[in-house]
Design a protein that fits this description.
Layout lengths: L2 H11 L5 H14 L16 H13 L5 E5 L7 H18 L2 E5 L3 H7 L2 E6 L2 E7 H6 L4 H8 L40 H5 L5 E2 L5 E2 L7
Parallel strand pairs: 1-2
Antiparallel strand pairs: 3-4, 4-6, 5-6
């Protein structure tokens, strides 16, 4: 499929506009993501990875969604291209009033883009809060472990080492109680027996931990 068909597919499926209006909409969407109008007549293999990601974003925006899911949207791109796509998403979020659910394993990217952050372990939320809260004062031991492992380019800034033992268990057969307890240096007896609820504190921070509640 050419790019015009890829980006315009949602418009055609939902019968939005005439053929001429859909053509104009595709051109506007390509311009919105930083691609020239003539890109509509090209095929995906003729583009770089970053340009293909821009085509994907244009396609996602075609039917004017209010909520956009970006699952590992920059993981396959080199760092300089990542920055361009992240800045584009940030701009589109503000310009279009989008709510963006950004899923990533790169915690520096998450910090750059997010207003609120949710940390998951074995498919369950263990901490949710404002970006500055979570990054500045992580409460759950797994969050502490994750952030301590993020490399910093400044040798004068050294992260506090947070020890973590063992391997990640199978999500098909999670441990009893808190799923993180076999690897947690702070685990107590109740952690082995009882699944901690995700409880919200006065500040709006939510933590699922018996030892370090919100």
């Amino acid at each position: 499929m050419r790019v015009r068909s890829i980006v315009g597919e949602g418009l055609a499926i939902h019968h939005l506009g005439t053929r001429e209006e859909r053509t104009a909409r595709v051109a506007a969407l390509l311009d919105m993501v930083g691609l020239p109008a003539e890109a509509a007549e090209r095929y995906p293999h003729e583009f770089s990875g970053g340009q293909r990601q821009r085509v994907g974003i244009a396609r996602a925006l075609a039917v004017e969604p209010r909520f956009l899911v970006a699952d590992e949207a920059v993981s396959a791109l080199d760092v300089s291209i990542q920055a361009q796509i992240l800045n584009l998403l940030q701009d589109l979020k503000q310009r279009l009033g989008l709510t963006l659910l950004f899923i990533s394993h790169d915690l520096r990217v998450v910090e750059h883009l997010s207003d609120r952050v949710a940390i998951m372990y074995l498919g369950k939320l263990v901490e949710v809060g404002g970006r500055d809260e979570v990054y500045g004062d992580p409460r759950h031991p797994y969050t502490q472990t994750l952030l301590a492992a993020v490399p910093t380019p400044d040798p004068r800034r050294r992260s506090r080492h947070v020890p973590v033992a063992g391997d990640v268990p199978s999500p098909m057969s999670p441990p009893s109680g808190c799923a993180f307890h076999p690897r947690c240096p702070h685990a107590i007896d109740v952690c082995r027996r009882v699944v901690p609820p995700l409880e919200t504190g006065a500040s709006g921070r939510a933590v699922a931990c018996h030892v370090f509640p919100a």
